[in-house]
């Protein structure tokens, strides 16, 4: 994983950064001009597990990077002004046309991303309250499928949430 090779200039003052050991004995970019230290943190994301009355799970075919054309749970990166729960509700609507609310927190997952390197994802079991199912702006297709007919899923975090829900609901 790249750490800091692409970080060259201070985001605060524009001065050239240098790699130095910090007080935690970790090598990080430092600015000798203003004292700013760059910490590369994981990007937060939210994912939705949505079931219908037949206990089928909703999946979407992704339209954009990462992994366009592959199947996934409705999901997305959390905006700076959103809580993980708000992001889950927003992504559910944007990708599926369904309006809903968080019913339950499933779990979190840390891993890598082809775009942002490191992510922390929050999985939520969602309750549908309104709307009609269709592929939204970020999806090529949206459909409910039986758990035993799931296609290959693009992201390890989504597989983790699917497995957790199957275990909780005792679905084989």
Secondary-structure blueprint:
Blueprint: E1 17-21, E2 27-31, E3 43-50, E4 57-62, E5 71-72, E6 75-77, H1 84-96, E7 98-113, E8 117-131, E9 139-145, H2 156-168
Parallel strand pairs: 3-8
Antiparallel strand pairs: 1-2, 3-6, 4-5, 4-9, 7-8
What does this structure look like?
The chain has 172 residues and is α+β, with helices and mostly antiparallel strands. It has 2 domains: 1-39, Ubiquitin Ligase Nedd4, Chain: W, CATH 2.20.70; 43-169, Nucleoside Triphosphate Pyrophosphohydrolase (Alpha-Beta Complex), CATH 3.90.79.10. The protein is 15% helix and 39% strand. It has 2 helices and 9 strands; from the N terminus they run ββββββαβββα. The strands form 3 sheets. The chain has a 4-stranded mixed sheet, with helices on both faces. Strands 5-4-9 form a 3-stranded antiparallel sheet, with no helix packed on it. A hairpin with an 8-residue loop joins strand 4 (57-62) and strand 5 (71-72). The chain is elongated. 27% of the residues are buried.
């Amino acid at each position: 994983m790249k750490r800091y090779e692409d970080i060259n200039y201070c985001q605060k003052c524009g001065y050239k950064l240098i790699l130095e050991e910090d007080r935690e004995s970790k090598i990080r970019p430092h600015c000798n001009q203003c004292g700013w230290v760059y910490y590369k943190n994981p990007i937060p994301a939210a994912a939705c597990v949505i079931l219908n009355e037949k206990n089928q799970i909703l999946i979407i075919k992704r339209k954009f990077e990462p992994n366009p054309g592959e199947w996934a749970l409705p999901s997305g990166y959390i905006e700076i002004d959103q809580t993980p729960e708000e992001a889950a509700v927003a992504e559910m609507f944007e990708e599926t046309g369904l309006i809903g609310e968080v019913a339950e927190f499933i779990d979190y997952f840390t891993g890598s991303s082809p775009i942002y390197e490191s992510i922390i994802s929050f999985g939520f079991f969602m309750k549908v309250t309104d709307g009609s199912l269709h592929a939204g702006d970020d999806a090529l297709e949206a459909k409910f499928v039986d758990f035993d007919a799931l296609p290959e899923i693009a992201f390890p975090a989504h597989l983790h949430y699917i497995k957790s829900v199957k275990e909780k609901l005792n679905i084989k």
